[in-house]
Backbone:
């Protein structure tokens, strides 16, 4: 509960932004920061806290995004139920991926590769199946209203994103300060030692991936509500998985605020690089790649850990 | 039911593709076998090599096959420098850091290509591109056959380097016991970078062989990178012949998958194999070090 006042303060400070700026660009940018902060927070529950680096969080994001769209379009559910369905579907996907990989004790690079493969399978399926609209994608009818989780103005979406992001922060802080958090840290630092101390590493990692997938699914469902359009590449493409891990890595995986800070820095950097290159496609991702290499090289604990970079340096030397 | 001749033709097509896949995967496998790192930038480096061939053919007027002696050393040098001054420096041997650094390199290369060349798909024009050769029941483009043959030669050459040269012995020594190798006077960092260089040099050769029947676009590496990972995992990470047979097998699976399930869904077969191998037999079918 120690972080709750800070989260409340953050939400309170972020709340009045739509009244302070009339600029749609600023509000769009802030909404994207909150979206990717949520996705990054989801990744960090598994990658940062449990030390299991997923390269396929698109599988969960995309499942959530498609689940609510399908629930609304094909089954006529309302958007709120769709949102709940999205989270459940993403959790189910998390259970599948987690059970498969943790049961067989995949770690490190192997875990990264298998998550990547699951996301690709999901992308191919979404590209082939009728229910997902195949390559054409899905289009939700425009119908603003709180009951449909659609908003006529950008401010509505901004606050919606703020609620989800704050929810993610609360979830992460609860995990962090619970016994689960301690067990995750034990597994991350030394799985054998954790097992020897009686930690059920499989169960602990499963809990982490279920929470992580659910939160990523919520981010995906928000995406659907915001853009009202989905295709296999948008939902399950490798760029989603990359965005999910970049924020926490750049911001710092050890802190609750790392994913938020990372998302903010990356979105601003993306805007700046687009502006500098006159809107060249891919310019933002070139910048992301460079930042990623530099961060791993010089600040393995991310921006938040910059002060502690020296000690981390000493720890990092293994070869 | 399908006619046996169609099935056989599909098999032969698959084997021809598989030979090139094997070559691409061998580079990845060698790097894994020696450095125990997964090079996420492998696909992006192949993409860069394909662009290099494209411009050598279109701007300099070189024949794609004549580009091999230019591109192999060039790609190797890039690989050496990339490992020595970026990957090794940034990762300091930590597994996750290597994944992230090579991912960063892939992001930079791919999106630089996207910014410079747009997402257009480019192909080269060759006089003999449409010549077909009958191989049993299959009609293969001559260039595809040349690619398969070239890939086999490259695989054998690579095998000879690893088996019979001092460099190969040093590489195997470092792969087995890096501290002992250091003690007997092998410059381990240099050998690491050389192994990485050989891995990228194979991509130079693969790009020259591939382009006449293929295309290049900024995202072209994506398709290859997962196929190559699948092959490497299937064959056993670091296993030389494992990667070779795995490549042929995956070529066939892709071809048959396309035949039975259609282009788009057909790729599922490859990923199904990938996931099943990772889960059930992470040491692969031929799990043994280089």
Residues:
């Amino acid at each position: 509960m120690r972080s709750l006042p800070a989260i409340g303060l953050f939400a309170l400070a972020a709340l009045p932004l739509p009244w302070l700026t009339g600029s749609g660009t600023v509000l769009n940018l802030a909404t994207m920061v909150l979206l990717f902060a949520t996705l990054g927070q989801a990744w960090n529950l598994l990658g940062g806290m449990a030390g299991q680096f997923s390269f396929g969080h698109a599988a969960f994001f995309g499942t959530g995004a498609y689940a609510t769209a399908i629930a609304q379009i094909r089954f006529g559910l309302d958007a709120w139920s769709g949102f709940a369905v999205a989270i459940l579907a993403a959790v189910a996907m998390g259970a599948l991926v987690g059970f498969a990989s943790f049961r067989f004790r995949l770690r490190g690079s192997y875990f990264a590769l298998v998550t990547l493969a699951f996301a690709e399978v999901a992308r191919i399926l979404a590209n082939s199946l009728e229910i997902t609209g195949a390559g054409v994608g899905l289009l939700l009818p425009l119908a603003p209203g709180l009951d449909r989780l659609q908003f006529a103005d950008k401010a509505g979406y901004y606050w919606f994103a703020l609620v989800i992001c704050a929810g993610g922060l609360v979830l992460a802080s609860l995990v962090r300060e619970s016994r689960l958090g301690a067990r995750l840290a034990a597994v991350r630092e030394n799985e054998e030692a954790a097992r020897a101390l009686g930690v059920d590493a499989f169960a602990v990692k499963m809990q982490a991936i279920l929470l992580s997938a659910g939160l990523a699914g919520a981010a995906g469902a928000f995406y659907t509500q915001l853009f009202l359009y989905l295709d296999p590449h948008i939902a399950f493409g490798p760029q989603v998985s990359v965005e999910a891990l970049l924020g926490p890595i750049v911001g710092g995986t050890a802190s609750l605020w790392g994913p938020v800070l990372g998302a903010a820095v990356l979105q601003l950097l993306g805007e700046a690089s687009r502006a500098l290159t006159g809107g060249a496609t891919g310019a933002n991702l070139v910048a992301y790649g460079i930042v990623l290499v530099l961060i791993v090289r010089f600040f393995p604990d991310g921006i938040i850990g910059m002060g502690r970079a020296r000690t981390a340096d000493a720890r990092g030397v293994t070869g | 039911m399908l006619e046996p001749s169609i099935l056989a033709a599909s098999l032969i097509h698959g084997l021809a593709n598989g030979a090139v896949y094997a070559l691409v995967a061998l580079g990845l496998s060698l790097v894994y076998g020696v450095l125990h790192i997964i090079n996420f930038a492998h696909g992006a480096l192949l993409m860069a090599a394909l662009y290099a061939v494209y411009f050598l053919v279109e701007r300099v007027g070189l024949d794609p096959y004549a580009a091999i002696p230019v591109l192999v050393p060039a790609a190797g040098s890039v690989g050496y420098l990339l490992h020595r001054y970026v990957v090794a420096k940034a990762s300091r041997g930590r597994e996750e850091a290597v994944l992230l650094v090579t991912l960063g390199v892939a992001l930079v290369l791919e999106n630089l290509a996207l910014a410079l060349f747009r997402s257009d798909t480019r192909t080269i024009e060759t006089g003999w591109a449409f010549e077909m050769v009958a191989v049993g029941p299959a009609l293969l483009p001559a260039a595809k056959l040349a690619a398969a043959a070239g890939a086999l030669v490259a695989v054998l050459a690579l095998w000879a380097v690893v088996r019979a040269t001092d460099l190969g012995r040093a590489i195997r020594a470092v792969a087995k016991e890096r501290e002992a190798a250091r003690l007997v006077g092998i410059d381990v960092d240099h050998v690491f970078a050389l192994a990485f260089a050989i891995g990228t040099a194979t991509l130079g050769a693969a790009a020259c062989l591939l382009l006449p029947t293929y295309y290049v676009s900024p995202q072209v590496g994506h398709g290859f990178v997962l196929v190559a990972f699948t092959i490497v995992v299937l064959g056993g990470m670091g296993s030389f012949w494992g990667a070779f047979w795995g490549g042929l097998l995956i070529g066939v699976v892709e071809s048959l998958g396309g035949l039975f399930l259609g282009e788009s869904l057909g790729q599922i077969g490859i990923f199904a194999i990938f996931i099943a191998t990772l889960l059930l037999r992470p040491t692969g079918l031929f799990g043994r070090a280089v």
Observations:
- Residues 312-319 of chain A have pLDDT under 50 and may be disordered.
- The longest strand of chain A covers residues 138-139.
